[in-house]
Amino acid sequence: MFSCWTRRQKANMSKAKATQPQVIHKVIMVGSGGVGKSALTLQFMYDEFVEDYEPTKADSYRKKVVLDGEEVQIDILDTAGQEDYAAIRDNYFRSGEGFLCVFSITEQESFQATADFREQILRVKNDDNIPFLLVGNKADLEEKRQVTVDEAQQRAQQWSVPYVETSAKTRANVDKVFYDLMREIRSRKMEATRQSNGKPKKKKEKRRKCTLL
Amino acid sequence: MDEKDEVRHNVIFVVRTITLQASKASKVAMAQHGLARVLSSQGFDPDNFVSKLCQSGEEELMTMKQKVQMLSDDTAQSLKKNVYKNYSQFIETAKEISILEGEMYQLSHMLTEQKSLMSNMMEMSLVSERAVVEEPVVKEEAEENPEEETRKNLAFLLEKVEGCSSVTEVPGRQLVHNGDLVELDSETFNQIQRVHCFLLNDSLMLASWLPNRRGPVRYRFQGLYELDSLAVVNVRDAGPHKNTFKILMFPDSKIYQADSAKSKRQWLDILEETKKNKAARDKQKKEAAMLLAEQQAAAALSPVEDKKVLTDEDESEALAAMETDFLNADWLQELPEDLDMCIAQRDFEGAVDLVERVNEFLVSCPKVPAVKEFKARIDHRVKQLTEGLMSELQVSPERSLRGGPRAARRAVAQLIRLGKSAQACDLFLKNRSAIIKYNIRQIKFEGATTLYIRCLCGVFFPNLMDTGREFLKAFQEHFGCMSAFVVWAKQELQTFVDTFKRQVFGGKSNMTTIAECIHTVRQSCMELHAIGLDLDCCFEEMLEENLEKYINETREQFVEGIKYRGAEDKWRPMNHLSNKDCNKFLEETSVAGLDLSDLVYDDCFISLTMNTSHFCKTCLSLARDLLSMYTPQLDVLITNTLVEIFAAQVVHMEQTLKLQEFAGERDFIMKNAQYILEVLMGKIEQVYKDKNVDFPPQLEKVNAEYRRLKSLVKTLPAS
Predict the structure, then answer these.
(1) Which domain holds residue B228?
(2) Where, per UniProt, does this protein localize (chain A) (predicted)?
(3) Which residue of B has its CA nearest to A206?
(4) Do B250 and A91 touch (CB under 8 A)?
(5) Is A206 at the interface with chain B, CB within 8 A?
(6) Interface test with A, best of B184, B188, B249 (most A CBs within 10 A)
(7) Above 0.85 for ipTM, yes or no?
């Protein structure tokens, strides 16, 4: 009885996969603790600003959005600013297709830390052109600014990525960063499918065997 | 005629009553009286008997009446006795019944417990959810006793999950949490399959549900993921799919759905906590490893060994498939369940037989994972079996202590067969200690110390002896355990002696009582020689201090008494006023062992002072008591005590001899001195002889004092 159920489910799954029309773009929020990764995510997801700060462990969200007339899904992984295991952080990064590297313009250290995050992401993804946005959050707190627009711009240019200043509180540029990143991801994907077709699936099978050993 | 008739009636009545009573009286009493036999015979006709009696005349009638009267008295007496006997028997029976009742109560209690246990077990094995529900408890226990729980948990895994033997082999690994989850497709959130997740303390094991499952195996091993490379993501919003969380294990990321928000929360929290715990442990391990590395660098170990181990493992993996056939024999397959059955039925012998058989079999098997897995299952049961046996021997309040040492024999024998002789020995002796303690507590203190000590010995030493015999039988070939027994016996003796001291020296017992008590214990100690246990010197050593103190105190009192009575001594012969009283006195002294009949004059006078006769009496009884406690260790003390007492008496006599006041009594004093120093000393010498002890030279010297006093008298001026 049970086995039947399982088999049917499997059949369903493969069918579902075959007819799945929607594209999922996987976005990962990285950055030091307290810079507003979760605030940006929640603002984007639910149009609300959460004042209370509670450190995130690792949360994921999914939402249907219309990107340039096409209905897609965005999958956001809101990571912890602090993670004890480097291996686990790598696992987060591996699962992402694009990154929002967030710092707080009111905190110089968080800006410095972006370099480490960038380096790690590049190492894990082994791809210098990975969709990536440098995001300076808390732009509404102009009076407490510690990181100038210039130095942030400079770093962004150096990495050849866009720099955007946002405010999770006022919702300034919140949609922009997510949509910009999704566009980047989309164009990267299109490029990839042009180059090779159906390869990722096979790769997946192989890799899984590795972990078993 | 009327009178005669009345008498006849009366007699008939009396005879009838007596017949009734006599038939009730004990048969022994009946046999002694011919009359009783006649009266209680079956065809006895009272009318006929009385009419015959009436014909023989008044005198005969009177004697008959007397006889009947006597018979009546006797019968009444024996009836009384019987009633008392019956009564005491009744009391005893009632006591026994109350004990039995208590035991029955315990038994029924145990049975209910067992019943609930059984039903629990039934439910456990049929419905896995039970096990899941009880998880938090298991976790707590694991913290208390990690070793134990680890084995239990992993054995549980082996039973349920196919192909996870490699997982259970890691030492220190334990189950933290487990539960059913549904795996979802990470893109579409469609259900893929039902899985069962086992969170171990260092990794997460995934197992899928087995189709066509048979027996206790429910899941098939899917994968094992180290916790430190595992990223757990709380899926906050996944559209219509609630209670999901994601696990990222490179390169896979999987989404699981829990059945409730609570269950999901629990999973996330426990995963987080376990990860933290592991991080802490790893940190410790790293530090330890660094230390070890330093040490190894110093020792410069060759790396060859490691390589060897690796190849071994490879080989064994290759053999694994082949070796599983090994275990396919029917009896082997059913063995774990058979073992469970034996343990549940308390058929310990059968269980141990099975264990021995399987161990013998497994010795010849190569060490492949399948065999190891099987062995782990067996070991798990051996552990249970051992626990069962041990609890059999454990002293617990709900267990009756009225069994003899043979009651423990069964458990002990099986434990020895399982190679747990040390534990068996320890538990057996503890059990015995408790029983001895219990039995001693049953003795009631009835006032007389000697009686109590006799009872105490009657309980303690036979118990010790039984234990010894049983121990020798049970641990025949385990000589290592013998020393444990000896140590135990000494400890028990110590507690016994403590009780003994409290009773004997604690109260105001006189020396005769003490001597008797000590004598009783010594004799009991001697009986222990039969089982090759010699505790004599231990007992003496434990007693020495108290005994010496007591003897010294007695001596001081004695000397004080001599001085006190000496001061009041008027040196008059005893006058008993009448011959009768005098004879009575003589009788008394002869009971004490002194013969004064030669010293009687004028019918009622005895030519010794009251003081002297008193001294003789007490001194002789003291000497007897002391010598009945004699040991070579006490020799000097006893001799000195006697010498000092005599010296004190001599000093008293010498002083009075020198006094002008008693110049006229010198002859009489010398007579007393002669009695004390020659006759009494002779008696004491006899006591020594009776006890087979050499008469000490110091006392012989005392004997010579009489001659010294004699010569002293000559030098004194006449009155």
Answers:
(1) 149-281
(2) Cell membrane
(3) B251
(4) yes
(5) no
(6) B188
(7) no
Distance from the Cα of A16 to chain B's closest Cα (Å) equals: 8
Q: How many CB atoms sit inside 10 A of residue A92's CB?
A: 23
Residue B260 included in any domain: yes
Domain check: are B528 and B643 in the same one?
A: no
Distance between B196 CA and the closest CA of chain A, angstroms: 14
Q: Are residues B485 and B627 in the same domain?
A: no
Q: B526 and B568, same structural domain? A: no
Beta strand extents in B108-164 (DSSP E only): 161-162
Shortest Cα distance from A159 to chain B (angstroms)?
27
In B569-696, alpha helices (H): 579-591, 610-628, 635-658, 666-674, 681-690
Residues with Cβ within 8 Å of B422's Cβ and at least 6 positions away in sequence, in order, are: B480, B481
Closest of B273, B223, B226, B233 to residue B256, by C-alpha = B233
* CB nearest to A9's CB, from B192, B234, B276: B192
Give the total number of structural domains in chain B: 3
The CATH number of whichever domain residue B195 belongs to comes to: 2.30.29.30
Write the burial class of residue B25 (CB in 10 Å: 0-12 exposed, 13-18 middle, 19+ buried): buried
Residues of chain A with confidence (pLDDT) below 70: 1-21, 82-85, 196-213
Q: Are B691 and B637 in the same domain?
A: yes
> Per mean pLDDT, which range of A166-180, B272-286, B350-364, B705-719 is the poorest?
B705-719
Whether residue B634 is found in the same domain as residue B523: no
At position B562, the amino acid (one-letter code) is: I
Q: Helical H runs in B345-478?
A: 348-363, 369-393, 409-417, 421-442, 449-474
**pLDDT exceeds 80 at position B302:** no
- Min Cα separation B307/chain A (Å): 19
Q: Which residues of chain B have a CB within 8 Å of the CB of A95? A: 248, 253
B684/B565 same-domain check: yes
Residue B388 lies in a domain: no
Residue in B with minimal Cα distance to A15: B190
Confidence of residue B314 (pLDDT cuts 50, 70, 90): very low
Assign 3-class secondary structure to A84-134: CCHHHHHHHHHCCCEEEEEEECCCHHHHHHHHHHHHHHHHHHCCCCCCEEE
Residues B491, B553 within the same domain: no
B253 inside domain: yes
Which member of A62, A88, A207 has the closest CB to residue B231? A88
A13 vs B229: CB contact, 8 Å cut-off? no
One domain for residues B505 and B559: no
Residues 50-69 of A with CB under 8 A from B: 57-63
